[in-house]
Amino acid sequence: MANGDESEQVRELQARLKQLKLMTVAPTGFYGSKTTAAVKSFQSKNGLDATGGVDDKTWKKIQSSSKKPTADELRPPTVNEVAAPDPRCMTGRVMCISKESRTLAWMIDGKVVSTMDVRFGSENTPTREGVFNVGWKAKEWTSTIYHTPMPYAMFFSGGQAVHYSADFAARGYAGASHGCVNVRDKGKLSKLFDDVQVGDKVVVYW
């Protein structure tokens, strides 16, 4: 395994490196710079050639130093670690959306009820930042501009909404939205959709 690879084996490698406290981010299955750095660190500590790639010798040593990851370790509920909430999220009912950690935390009176991964618009169609309110909701909706499905849509700023994205579920961060806040976990979003009321606060921040 080496930089640029993407596989279930890479996911297992990342989960094992996390057990060994060499990675803090959750497994994604993609072997990038963070995985390379973690492997190099492991190799240095164990007297192996610090290449950053995983050969047979390195893999066997990592396997013997860690245990077989559980399903939850391989696919944690939220891939991204939730950022510290913005101060504006600490009162009332809020969808607290961090662009830096790419997460949405549903908060009530300062307590996190649930969290999920999100992605945003591209440079040309950026997701607006600031404090908004949920103006209206639609369980089944198709964008009138882009003609794409937007299930579980909760609109907070003009045509921008929090909604489920099949593209995000399939392609991850390889794509972007047209400005909306995309969620890839349909089950979590459907529960959030039921909980959120029109008028609830939305905070989008860096």
UniProtKB/TrEMBL annotation:
Residues 61-85 are annotated as: Disordered. Transmembrane segments: none annotated. The active site is at residues 163, 180. Pathway: Cell wall biogenesis; peptidoglycan biosynthesis. PROSITE patterns: LD_TPASE (PS52029). Pfam families: PG_binding_1 (PF01471), YkuD (PF03734). Residues 93-205 form the L,D-TPase catalytic domain. Keywords: Cell shape, Cell wall biogenesis/degradation, Peptidoglycan synthesis, Transferase. This is L,D-TPase catalytic domain-containing protein. It comes from Streptomyces virginiae (Streptomyces cinnamonensis). The lineage of its organism: Bacteria, Bacillati, Actinomycetota, Actinomycetes, Kitasatosporales.
